[in-house]
Amino acid sequence: MFRLLLIDDNLEDRVLILRELNREFLDLQAEEIIEPEGFHQAISAGNFDFVITDYQLRWTNGITVLEEVKSRYPNCPVIMFTDSGSQEVAVEAMKKGLDDYLVKSLKHYIRLPVAVRTVLQQTATQQRADRLELRLQTLLNQLNVGVFRSRLDGCLLEGNAAFLHLLGVSSLQAAQTLDLQELFRQPTAELQSLNQGREVQLRRADGSFIWVSLNQTINTTDSEPVIEGLIENISDRKLAQEALKCANDELELRVAERTQELQQANEQLLVEIGERKQAQLALQQSAAYHRHLVEVCPDPIFIQCGGQFVFVNEAAIKLYGATNSSELIGKRVFDYLHPDYHEIVKQRIQQLRDTGKPMAMMEQKFFRLDGTVIDVEVAAAPFTYQKQPAAQVVVHDISDRKRAEAELRKALETERELSELKSRIITTISHEYRTPLATILSSAELLRTYGHKFTEEKRLTHLHRIETSSQHLTNLVSDVLFIGQADADRLKFNPAPLDLEQFCQELVEEMSFSTRNQRAIAFSTRGKCTRTCLDEKLLRQILTNLLSNAIKYSPPESTLGFDLECAESTVVLSIRDEGIGIPAQHLPQLFESFHRADNVGTIPGTGLGLAIVKKCVDMHGGQINVESIVDVGTTVTVMLPTFQEGVRC
């Protein structure tokens, strides 16, 4: 049901408006407002989907009505239909949220239903875009990783809830007051090519500092470069690394001190033996303590020596999908490293040995024991294991973050595709409406001005133009409504007994008459086609669109082929033309709504015909095939089952 609030105190205008709208909207329910009490009651109740208002009313004006409606119902469409406004009024109304402005005249009454339909479609499209943006924003806010966007000068543009939480603020405005230059420092070309993150220290709103892992890229949005980044709190890991380093330094210092004492007090061997035992006990306790730190560390840690695992902590066992350390100890580390990273890891191991300095975090891919691939960040430090050079490796699982990045990219791509589809739909519909409307208006104007001077034949010519253009608009609206119903799964499939041969013959006669004998349709049939079980309405959509396309894209005086073949359980309908053909690169997109090949030139069309055919064929459970050669012709073959499973005819 379409509920309309009509605000106009002119009875004659209301009657004309409702007459035109009732022709377009069969389920129209209109409430007429002619005085302020009725208006306030209707606004309070809110039982309407659309508002049409005059500008000059006896008790107020259209601007006041617009402000009252939009203040209570911001998403409710409003059209101002008036003959008492001005350009200044129209501009002011559009600034205040008016959806369309029409001047009352006889020809504009006819345009009013089209304007209402257009505004409804624009509102529905905007609501879908708003819902998509809300879902995307919700996804960003649910991530545990901080996500932000900024200009190159450091001005924050966006930040999700996790980003604000890491900074200790509650709003983007508060975050913009912090010193975040480390986040906006542009990465070098080398870091960009490796997609390598870096660790930076940030000062939070309360003055405390945290360490974060920063990954950033530079993209271009609306011709302006922006920084897009991800940050993750790694303060705990940094503390664990610092504690491990301090413990190692303390151990080395104590061993050195004890060795010096033993050398100085060699003569007191018996006493020193006891002290040495105590030192050894302390050393064992310290080693056990350090080992415990490594074991309980939440990040996976392993030691590799000679290219093999010689130690793994519990987190590493879980990372690789093992049940105990014996499944990894002694195995080759490179067997669980993705081949894409073999060479660069070999270089890092050699650099580790040559410099003796720790290696910074680097993204890699590991294999688990079951063969699945996981994304990780890896840092390494030189280590000595049983007097052999080794490496202590710290791993951070970033699979969740990678999945979140992929989902974010997918959501942004979906939003871009929806935006492109919306632009294509608006452009196509606007273009297809403009030409027939211009024809109708020009012919009507000529008849009104010079009709008394025209011959009867010339008047009939202009009337035929109006009739043809009106039919074109009607067909266009019908196609859009049909494809909309199909996309919303509201089409009904009603198969019934059908004499298919007679149906096709009648349709050929109808189409031949409509083409005025400029193109002949050669119809042939094979097999018994008098008893089938098909949906006549959907079948008419299939054949009408295919024959119309063949006629539209074929030269005058050419002959179209229409073959009907009926087997025991299948109907094959084949339509051939000698037209412009379809380029091969466009064949995969033929059945997409609003898609047209680039060789159609000025031939009118919306790109909905084959999309409608495909949906009707699918509802029959059939198949469709298109063969085409440019400048030679096109053959479309449709195969339909004659009887539907579970359906009685």
Give the SSE map.
Blueprint: E1 2-7, H1 11-24, E2 28-33, H2 36-45, E3 50-53, H3 62-72, E4 78-82, H4 87-95, E5 100-103, H5 106-142, E6 146-151, E7 156-159, H6 161-167, H7 172-175, H8 181-184, H9 189-194, E8 198-203, E9 209-221, E10 224-233, H10 235-264, H11 269-296, E11 301-305, E12 308-312, H12 314-319, H13 342-355, E13 359-367, E14 373-385, E15 388-397, H14 399-450, H15 456-487, E16 496-498, H16 500-514, E17 520-526, E18 532-534, H17 536-552, E19 559-566, E20 570-576, H18 609-619, E21 623-629, E22 633-641
Parallel strand pairs: 1-2, 1-3, 3-4, 4-5, 17-19
Antiparallel strand pairs: 6-7, 6-10, 8-9, 9-10, 11-12, 11-15, 13-14, 14-15, 16-18, 19-20, 20-22, 21-22
Describe this entry's structure for a reader.
With 649 residues, this protein is of the alpha+beta class. It folds into six domains: 2-137, Response regulator (Rossmann fold, 3-Layer(aba) Sandwich), CATH 3.40.50.2300; 143-233, Beta-Lactamase (2-Layer Sandwich); 244-297; 298-397, Beta-Lactamase (2-Layer Sandwich); 403-487, Orthogonal Bundle (Helix Hairpins), CATH 1.10.287; 496-641, Heat Shock Protein 90. The protein has helices spanning 11-24, 36-45, 62-72, 87-95, 106-142, 161-167, 172-175, 181-184, 189-194, 235-264, 269-296, 314-319, 342-355, 399-450, 456-487, 500-514, 536-552, 609-619, and strands at residues 2-7, 28-33, 50-53, 78-82, 100-103, 146-151, 156-159, 198-203, 209-221, 224-233, 301-305, 308-312, 359-367, 373-385, 388-397, 496-498, 520-526, 532-534, 559-566, 570-576, 623-629, 633-641. The strands form five sheets. A five-stranded parallel sheet has the order 2-1-3-4-5, with helices on both faces. It has a five-stranded antiparallel sheet with strand order 7-6-10-9-8. A five-stranded antiparallel sheet has the order 12-11-15-14-13, sandwiched between helices. β3 (50-53), α3 and β4 (78-82) form a beta-alpha-beta unit. α5 (106-142) runs antiparallel to α14 and α15 (456-487) crosses α18 (609-619). The radius of gyration is 38 Å and the shape is elongated. The mean pLDDT is 82.
